[in-house]
Specification:
Elements: H1 2-25, H2 27-37, H3 42-70, H4 76-94, H5 109-123, H6 125-135, H7 139-155, H8 157-166, H9 169-187, H10 190-195, H11 203-226
């Protein structure tokens, strides 16, 4: 019984990580969706967003399955872990920067749905890598987390942005989770273990180390980038 309870708590924590990663990295996706559907009549906008969201979830799941398969390639888990740390650093260091997003508004329902799905897929590669790392490739937990987080991003984008602005600590938590997931990927890379035999035996140390690197790197990036430039004579 205790083992089942422990597993349930672990699974819930994994799903929470997926949701936090998606919320932290998915702010721009909601903007894309709004831009793609803005030219439609009001009664069609909700349909476009609803069907586009469903398509985006399906496509993300397919992308995640492909990533899980690709991670079986030698050393790709290690590369993925390094990328996750870099994504975490960027999330913390550059989350206040605005990106120039240009998506052509569509006048037809199908055109808007297609644009929403494709744009979301192109902008969600970092999300997919992050949640695959957090779940360890467990497709059930991965899908469940996406089913919760993607609708929140799309339908509650205004609230999400306000919460992130009001509580910037959530950005650091998201970056830390990415670093933690990166450490897990490094520790479970069987090809890396051939050269670094202690990697698998020190999973906690690797997770903590990657978390510190993600948080520290993001903190340094943020403060160097935002530091006012000295006036030159």
């Amino acid at each position: 019984m205790e083992a089942l309870e422990a597993q349930l708590v672990f699974d819930i924590w994994i799903v929470v990580q997926v949701i936090l990663i998606d919320l932290a990295l998915g702010g721009d996706n909601s903007i894309v969706i709004g831009m793609a559907a803005r030219n439609l009549p009001h009664h069609l906008q909700r349909k476009a967003i609803l069907y586009g969201t469903a398509g985006a979830i399906v496509l993300r799941f397919i992308m995640a399955a492909i990533v899980v398969w690709l991670l079986q390639i030698p050393f790709l888990k290690t590369i993925g872990g390094i990328l996750l740390v870099l994504i975490g650093i960027k999330l913390i260091g550059a989350h206040e920067e605005t990106e120039n997003i240009h998506v052509k508004a569509k006048d037809s329902l199908w055109g808007a749905i297609r644009t929403i799905i494709l744009a979301d897929a192109l902008m969600s590669l970092d999300n997919v890598l992050g949640i695959v790392g957090a779940t360890g490739g467990h497709m059930g937990l991965l899908l469940f987390g996406m089913l919760i987080s993607v609708p929140i991003i799309i339908f509650g984008s205004t609230v999400v942005v306000k919460v992130m602005t009001r509580f910037p600590i959530l950005i650091y938590i998201g970056g830390g989770i990415l670093g933690w997931a990166a450490g897990g990927m490094l520790a479970t890379d069987q090809y890396l273990a051939v050269y670094f035999s202690h990697a698998a035996d020190n999973e906690l140390i690797l997770k903590l180390g990657m978390t510190v690197i993600a948080l520290g790197g993001g903190f340094v990036w943020k403060h160097i980038h935002n530091h006012p430039k000295k006036a030159t004579c």
